[in-house]
Write a structure and sequence with these properties.
By secondary structure, the chain is α/β, with parallel strands linked by helices. 25% of the residues lie in helices and 28% in strands. The strands form 2 sheets. Strands 2-1-3-4-5 form a 5-stranded parallel β-sheet. Strands 6-7 form a two-stranded antiparallel ribbon. The longest helix is centred in the first third of the chain and has 15 residues.
Length: 166
């Protein structure tokens, strides 16, 4: 286990500040299931945005689908028109870039957005694909043997769990 301590709620405050600066009047929020969707949902509410945030599942487009199978975490729900939209994609932890690649494939199954940008709570480096976040609330270095996961508590607050990687 790691001695790294990350205050997820403080980082959420930083993310909200950064996201506010990226939002246009017509920007739609969509989060990667599950942690990114939790962030998008809370930001939609906390920033006073009308409507609901979207949620994007990476399950059907993963390059390790045969190994992982179909996730029961959640499905894609996009309560807005994707075609021509300005979309701010949110995720909790950016690591290899493979989940973002899968989510972009899923998004394009619904239409061709005018623009897609990425904001993340934590960028932990270790990229395997050329994916970069427009905004990251924190950048941390973790060994590849460890996994950083966002958890949502019963009261809606966030915390992090660091575990050995499966």
């Amino acid at each position: 286990m790691s001695s790294l301590a990350l205050d997820a709620e403080a980082l959420y405050g930083e993310l909200a500040r950064g996201v506010r600066a990226l939002l246009g009047a017509d920007t739609q929020l969509a989060g990667v299931v599950s942690g990114g969707a939790w962030l998008a949902e809370r930001l939609q509410r906390d920033l006073g945005r009308a409507g609901a945030a979207g949620a994007l599942s990476s399950a059907l487009h993963r390059d390790d689908f045969a190994k992982r199978g179909l996730s029961a975490h959640g499905q894609t729900v996009l309560p807005f028109e994707v075609q021509g939209a300005d979309i701010l994609l949110l995720d909790d932890v950016l690591f290899t870039g493979r989940t973002i690649r899968a989510v972009l494939n899923e998004l394009f199954d619904y239409g061709r957005p005018a623009r897609v940008r990425l904001a993340v709570l934590v960028d932990r480096g270790g990229r395997e694909l050329p994916v970069a976040a427009e905004f990251a609330a924190a950048r941390v270095a973790l060994p590849a043997t460890q996994s950083l996961r966002l958890a949502r508590e019963g009261d809606g607050s966030f915390s992090f769990h660091i575990q050995p990687r499966a």
